[in-house]
Write a sequence for this structure.
């Protein structure tokens, strides 16, 4: 169970990280003079960091080895 | 950033009306709140499914769900926010963002501009003050169209002022 969750986490972080990087690239590249791209970028990065920390913290706090027994109860 | 010519100034940057993106915002907000409602239901006294060691795997899966919604929201935001209509003292630049990886940039020189038309159709466009702007250059069949732009009458006026001064050869604003 742990390895399955770890693989899911790794693939998820890689994929979501790549999509996040693409969004950051777009926001930085296509900004127009005087627009709110900077604020948009900060908002996006804050949200992204919050979700990533939430995922990592919950992964580390989960007792993956004993989870099947807990699910059966 | 768009590259400006020497002595070129941006007079206005217009986007599509907020109404175009409102449905995406509302859907994203509901979806972001979804796991919280889900947790409240699953942890309710009659069900009590979500308790003890099951909370963290729920947060783990919810985190991925929330991140997916977040990415979807910002991918949509890019589509909306970078679809712009830029009026400078020399030209009009229309950047059309289609999804994440398709982008069209069209330019129209103000000195060649012949006709600008605005069109507001129906109750929603009239009440929320948005519509379509069509600009046509002399000797060209292509019409420059920007749909669902906020306050098209104001944009038309800015274009008309910029064109008058561009034709005189002066800079419009000091």
């Amino acid at each position: 169970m742990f390895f399955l969750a770890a693989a899911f986490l790794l693939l998820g972080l890689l994929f979501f990280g790549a999509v996040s990087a693409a969004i950051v690239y777009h926001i930085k590249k296509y900004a127009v003079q005087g627009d709110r791209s900077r604020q948009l970028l900060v908002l996006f990065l804050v949200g992204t960091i919050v979700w990533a920390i939430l995922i990592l913290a919950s992964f580390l706090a989960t007792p993956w080895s004993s989870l099947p027994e807990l699910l059966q109860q | 950033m768009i590259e400006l010519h020497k002595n070129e100034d941006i007079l206005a940057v217009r986007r599509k009306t907020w109404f175009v993106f409102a449905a995406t915002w509302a859907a994203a907000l509901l979806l972001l709140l979804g796991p919280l409602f889900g947790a409240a239901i699953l942890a309710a006294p009659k069900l009590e499914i979500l308790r003890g060691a099951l909370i963290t795997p729920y947060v783990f899966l919810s985190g991925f769900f929330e991140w997916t919604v977040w990415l979807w929201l910002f991918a949509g935001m890019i589509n909306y926010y970078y679809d712009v209509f830029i009026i400078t003292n020399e030209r009009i630049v229309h950047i059309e963002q289609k999804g994440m990886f398709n982008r069209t940039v069209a330019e129209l020189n103000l000195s060649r501009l012949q006709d600008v038309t605005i069109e507001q159709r129906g109750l929603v466009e009239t009440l929320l003050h948005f519509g379509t702007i069509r600009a046509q250059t002399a000797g060209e069949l292509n019409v420059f169209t920007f749909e669902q732009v906020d306050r098209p009458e104001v944009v038309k006026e800015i274009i008309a002022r910029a064109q008058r001064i561009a034709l005189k050869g002066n800079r419009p604003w000091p």
Summary: Chain B has two domains: 10-16+83-168, 21-79. The interface with chain A takes residues 1-2, 4, 10, 13, 52-54, 56-57, 59-60, 63-64, 66-68, 70-71, 74-75, 77-78, 81-82, 84, 86, 95, 97, 100, 103 of chain B (CB under 8 Å). Strands of chain B lie at 10-15, 84-88, 91-98, 102-109, 113-119, 130-137, 143-150. Helices of chain B lie at 18-42, 55-81, 122-127, 152-168.
